[in-house]
Specification:
Elements (H helix, E strand, L loop, with lengths): L2 H22 L4 H9 L5 H8 L6 E3 L21 E8 L2 E8 L10 H17 L3 E5 L10 H16 L6 E5 L2 E3 L4 H4 L3 E5 L4 E3 L3 H8 L5 H5 L1 H6 L6 E3 L2 H13 L25 H4 L10 H8 L6 E3 L7 E8 L2 E8 L10 H16 L4 E7 L6 H5 L2 H14 L4 E10 H6 L9 E4 L4 E3 L3 H8 L1 H5 L4 H16 L3 H5 L5 E2 L5 H11 L18
Helix pairs in contact: 4-5, 13-15, 17-19
């Protein structure tokens, strides 16, 4: 190579590196400082924190905005989003991280196409998609082109749903149409105090409806993790959210074509759990901590709960049993007596379907009196919402194991994955009972006339309740009909669960051909 050619190449390379450095600075030092002052990381800092060291490979570095009359004079380094791939615990992931220092992280057409590109690559190669959202929304200067960009992303969120895991972290504003992309993904995580999601902002609300509300009151993490159910997890800051993403991914496979990673468990399969006898009182009127039951049984007592503050009467989350990743669904007797209501049904059904999408076995812990009664529930559509749980369990083809810890009554017995709804193995403790309803309600109906006509109705009622309880309020009648596979000693529960899980490891089950089912949305 001649000296002239070498000099020319060095000049081009130097220009390339200079362009790259300008892009990597995003909106500049002043805007980066404002980002830090707000307690937020920059787009690139988030990627460095989330990914394994030195594993990030950037794509679309030099992509620029479309231009146009309203964009004249505006610079958008990297188009306001950093995209590429890297590794988390040695496993490949594809990511985009919106850069709020560049035009507020607003989404233009080319910004969207960068995101669409990495989504396509993720599906082609079979790897999760992670979106780190921090954007003021659609770039108004680009008009309909920015809306088209959102359409490209939403479309992929939808058609790639169930193909690879999709995770969204809300680390700043997410407003207007931008909220629909996270809502279409499998999990949404938010930071406390610095992130929010809403379709219509406080200023528009004030102008149109005269309602005055702050950003936090309208769409902060507390609202979406406790009231709306839009978000699954929240954390104090960016770093904590990114740590949650790393742990969440450890339970998930790379794609629907794979099984979740299995780890070597240091917790013996044969570990006995006699403490369960003192946790679960046989008196059905006494609540107990279902979270503690779960932690006693799972590997190293570690349970990664999802949506812990929403619809607390149902508990969902991930754990490991014998090193196997499992999804757990459980009634919570400490909230609404563990009954199923509208929100709990939605929460459980969505989680069941997520587990089924990604080949994660489902363990169901049952202690339920029924669906929550009331005019508000009936008028709110508890029939439709409760049907979602029935649909989700019946649709799921992953290994399904059910353990009845205490009571399982009425339609909720079916909704909590009974034998008839497709459970592969149903276990029960001696403390459990399966019936249409509890002894008191059943006795009041069956022996109503006898009680009413008695000289001492209260005494007769008490006697009939006890008579019914002895005859029907136990697990052995259902076991005798084959609805329960085994009644087990609680202290051997862990061993039983792992045995059955290993037996079902290579389970195969198909469904009749169809384009797709019609979930009662």
């Amino acid at each position: 190579m001649s000296d002239d050619v070498l000099a020319w190449m060095n000049e081009l390379t130097a220009e390339m590196e200079e362009r790259r450095k300008r892009i990597e600075k995003g909106g500049g030092e002043a805007r980066i400082k404002r980002q830090h002052d707000a307690g937020k990381m920059t787009a690139r800092e988030r990627l460095q924190t989330l990914l394994d060291e030195d594993s990030f490979v950037e794509l679309g570095v030099f992509v620029d905005h479309l231009g146009g009359e309203l964009m004249q004079g505006l610079e958008a380094p990297g188009e306001g989003v950093v995209t590429g791939y890297g590794q988390i615990d040695g496993r490949r992931v594809f990511l985009f991280s919106q850069d709020f220092t560049v035009l507020g992280g607003s989404l233009g057409k080319m910004h969207a196409q960068k995101i669409a590109k990495i989504m396509d690559l993720a599906v082609k190669t079979g790897a999760p998609i992670i979106g780190l959202n921090d954007s003021a929304g659609a770039r108004i200067q680009e008009g309909v082109d920015s809306l088209s960009g959102y359409g490209e992303v939403f479309y992929r969120n939808a058609i790639y749903s169930g193909v690879v895991p999709q995770l969204s972290a809300i680390l700043g504003p997410c407003a207007g149409g931008a909220v629909y992309s996270p809502a279409l993904t499998d999990f949404v995580l938010m930071t406390k105090g610095s992130s929010y999601m809403f379709i219509t902002g406080p200023e528009v609300l004030k102008a149109v409806t005269k309602e005055e509300v702050s950003f936090e009151q309208l769409g902060g993490s507390a609202i979406h993790t406790r009231q709306s159910g839009v978000a699954h997890l929240e954390a104090d800051n960016d770093t904590s959210v990114l740590e949650q993403i790393r742990e969440l991914l450890s339970y998930l496979p790379q794609s629907a074509r794979e099984k979740p990673p299995k780890v070597v468990s240091r917790d013996p399969k044969t570990r006995e759990t006699p403490e369960l006898l003192s946790i679960v009182h046989p008196d059905q009127r006494r609540p107990y901590p279902m979270h503690e039951v779960i932690r006693v049984l799972v590997d190293e007592n570690h349970f990664f709960e999802i949506q812990p503050d929403y619809a607390k009467n149902i508990v969902i989350g991930f754990a490991r049993l014998g090193g196997h990743s499992v999804g757990i669904v459980a009634n919570n007797p400490r909230h609404l007596a563990g009954t199923l209501n509208i929100d709990a049904s939605d929460k459980a059904a969505r989680f069941i379907r997520t587990c089924d999408c990604f080949n994660i076995p489902i363990i169901t812990f049952v202690d339920v009196t029924g669906f929550l009664p009331g005019v508000a529930q009936e008028h709110g559509g508890i029939i439709r919402h409760g049907a979602k749980m029935l649909y989700a369990y019946a649709e799921a083809t992953v290994p399904k194991i059910t353990l009845i810890t205490r009571k399982s009554y009425g339609g909720a017995y079916l909704a909590m994955n009974s034998r008839d709804m497709g459970s592969d193995v149903v276990l029960a403790w001696p403390t459990s009972a399966v019936a249409v309803m509890g002894a008191e309600g059943a006795a009041n109906i069956i022996y109503r006339r006898e009680i009413q006509n008695a000289d001492r109705p209260q005494a007769v009622r008490a006697a009939k309740i006890e008579e019914y309880r002895k005859k029907f309020d136990h697990p052995f009648l259902a076991a005798g009909r084959g609805y329960i596979d085994d009644v087990i000693d609680p202290k051997y529960t862990r061993c039983h669960l792992i045995d059955h899980l290993e037996m079902l490891e290579h389970k195969e089950e198909t469904r009749p051909y169809k384009k797709h089912g019609n979930l009662p949305i």
